[in-house]
């Protein structure tokens, strides 16, 4: 199956590192023009320039804090104006620290809700009007397996991710008449800087070494390895393509078989 996105404009948040960057790179390889949002200006601009040069596509980096309504609005509108249309939105921003729910501070809760949950809503709400003008589109929310079942001390991220899974289905039903598909992808333990921080915190809480914790996690993953960012990106590339034109309102686990009771 040959998936191409030539002539499409794709927006990716959290696009300067980890899973978000892998998704942006996959889209660039498939020929899409890219709008890229993140808070780290130097890293964002460097990656946008690299993708443009490597894949000969248009890229527009927009430094944005998606915890702020005005930044989310500015990002989407700047992309529509500069790149001409919006066909795809992938919400991948929002690194929410993990801790037991009753030990999480008010700032932790407010940050998780504002940056990830409301950040996704803000970008989608703004992008939908442009997708309708283009005759349809595709939105993918990068969520987590913690939205379906707790993983470690995932108080704030688990609650936020559960809300995002509900939001995905609700949005899919609402936007289907406009030809806009909405799906979610739930990464499992994926080798990124965020996973290293998360597992280090889990190891500390359990009083064991980081290496020992990772060995224990690997023993629970049927495929016997941690995921790579491109494993997640490849699922997203499929979901936004015409090959998935009859798929909406689903959440796909990309976790090597880690999850139980959720197919």
Structure description:
The relative contact order is 0.14. The protein has eight helices and seven strands, in the order βαβαβαβαβαβαααβ. Helices cover 48% and strands 14% of the residues. The protein has 263 residues and is α/β, with parallel strands linked by helices. The two termini are 24 Å apart. α4 (106-134) links the parallel β4 and β5 (137-142). It has a seven-stranded parallel beta sheet with strand order 3-2-1-4-5-6-7, with helices on both faces. The model has no long low-confidence stretch (mean pLDDT 91). It has a single domain (9-189, 228-254), classed as 3-Layer(aba) Sandwich (Rossmann fold).
List the keywords.
263 residues; alpha/beta; Rossmann fold; seven-stranded parallel beta sheet
Number of domains: 1
CATH class: Alpha Beta
- Radius of gyration over all CA atoms, rounded: 18 Å
From N to C, what is the helix and strand string? EHEHEHEHEHEHHHE
Distance between the termini: 24 Å
Mean of pLDDT: 91
CATH level 4 superfamily = NAD(P)-binding Rossmann-like Domain
Oligomer: single chain
- Characterize the biggest β-sheet: 7 strands, parallel
């Amino acid at each position: 199956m040959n998936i191409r996105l030539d002539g499409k404009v794709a927006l990716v948040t959290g696009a300067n590192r980890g899973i978000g960057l892998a998704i942006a790179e996959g889209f660039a390889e498939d020929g899409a023009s890219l709008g890229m949002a993140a808070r780290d200006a130097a890293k964002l601009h460097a990656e946008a320039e690299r993708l443009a040069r490597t894949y000969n596509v248009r890229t527009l980096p927009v430094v944005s804090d998606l915890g702020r309504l005005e930044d989310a609005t500015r990002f989407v509108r700047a992309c529509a104006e500069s790149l001409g249309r919006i066909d795809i939105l992938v919400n991948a921003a929002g690194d929410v620290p993990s801790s037991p729910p009753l030990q999480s501070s008010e700032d932790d809760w407010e940050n998780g809700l504002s940056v990830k949950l409301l950040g996704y809503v803000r970008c989608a709400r703004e992008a939908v009007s442009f997708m309708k003008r283009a005759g349809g589109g595709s939105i993918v929310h990068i969520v987590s397996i913690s939205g379906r079942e707790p993983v470690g001390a995932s108080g704030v991220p688990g609650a936020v991710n559960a809300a995002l899974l509900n939001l995905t289905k609700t949005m899919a039903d609402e936007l289907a008449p406009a030809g806009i598909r909405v799906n979610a992808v739930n990464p499992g333990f994926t080798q990124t800087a965020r996973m290293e921080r998360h597992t280090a915190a889990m190891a500390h809480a359990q009083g064991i070494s980081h290496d020992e914790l990772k060995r224990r996690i690997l023993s629970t993953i049927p495929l016997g390895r941690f995921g790579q960012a491109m494993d997640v990106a490849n699922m997203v590339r499929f979901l936004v393509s015409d090959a998935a034109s009859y798929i909406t309102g689903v959440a796909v686990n990309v976790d090597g078989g880690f999850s139980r009771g959720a197919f």
